[in-house]
Structures are given as C-alpha cells and as structure tokens.
Amino acid sequence: MPTGERKDPYRSYNFLVEIDGITRAGFRECSGLDSTQDPIDYREGTDPLTTRKLPGLVKYSNISLKSGMTDDAELWEWRKKAMEGKVERKNASIVLLDDTGAEKVRWNFINGWPTKWTGPTFNATGNEVAIETLEIVHEGLSKA
C-alpha cells in the first residue's frame, strides 16, 4: 500500500562554499556545522532539592574546509592577513545541492575569519592529492 511520495535523503558529496569576495567554491570536505548550548544550573533557597536548567550561551564549532592544493592563493592570503593582525571578517554559505545541481539547503555563517591553516602531508611513495585545511571561526550559523 503506497504511503505517499518517497523522499530520498541528499548525498553529502554535492556541495559548494560561497565566501564573500573569494571565488573558490570547490572543496573536498566540509565539517563543523553545529551549535551547542550548555545548561546553567540554578537554584533558589525556596526551590525543592533539585536545580533548574537554564539555557546558557550558544557556541559554534569551527568550520573546517579541506581542498586539494593548487596555485590559487586566495584562501592563504585571507589567512595571512589574519596572522598579520588585519582580520577580515566575511559572511559565507555552505550550500547542499541535489543530483541535478539545484540548491536544496544553505547554511549561512557570519563574521567568519580563518583561525588555522594546515598544509599537506608529503610522502614520496604515495600518490595521494596534496590536501590543505582551513579552519574558520564564526559568530553565528543559520539554515535557510
């Protein structure tokens, strides 16, 4: 007996990254799309012998982007400015696409800047692609 229209989940390999003023959109891996909120224990003298759980500050993980090394230096230049004390905060989006390339889900983060860059690991006996990693801190995440 049919139960309605089948909705298959989207695949995780089809995504792009849009960063203000940086044209590079292709990455191998993106992680860190999460938020947490620690509870605050609170109790008044007239309360029963249990604590109340109040919502605390919202925290966001760093977004980690991995890509193959090329001669495109835009991300490195953005990190280099931060290392020199000239932090450029940028808004950006991680966009999930369906199999036809149409946008399905967008996560927007605000006031991001690169806090860490990791270069590739080299191995003379391997044949892997040289991968660099950029970690971006930010001040908020929304889903559109």
Description:
- It is a single chain.
- The protein is mainly beta and 144 residues long.
- It contains one helix and nine strands, in the order βββββαββββ.
- The chain has one helix at residues 74-83, and strands at residues 15-19, 29-31, 35-42, 52-60, 63-68, 90-97, 103-118, 131-137, 141-143.
- Strands 1, 2, 5, 6, 7, 8 and 9 form a seven-stranded antiparallel β-sheet that branches. The protein has a two-stranded antiparallel ribbon with strand order 3-4.
- The longest helix has 10 residues, at 74-83.
Topology:
Elements: E1 15-19, E2 29-31, E3 35-42, E4 52-60, E5 63-68, H1 74-83, E6 90-97, E7 103-118, E8 131-137, E9 141-143
Antiparallel strand pairs: 1-6, 2-5, 3-4, 5-8, 6-7, 7-8, 7-9
> What are the segments in which pLDDT stays under 50 over at least 5 consecutive residues?
none
**How many separate helices?**
1
Using the alpha-carbon principal axes, give the shape. extended
Helix fraction bin = under 10%
The value of Rg in angstroms is: 20 Å
Estimated share of beta-strand residues? over 45%
Structural class: mainly beta
Biggest sheet statistics: 7 strands, antiparallel
> Mean of residue pLDDT?
92
The count of DSSP E runs of length 2 or more, i.e. the number of strands, is: 9
- Amino- and carboxy-terminal Cα gap: 34 Å
Query: Helices and strands, in N-to-C order?
Result: EEEEEHEEEE
Summary, kept brief:
With 144 residues, the chain is mainly beta.
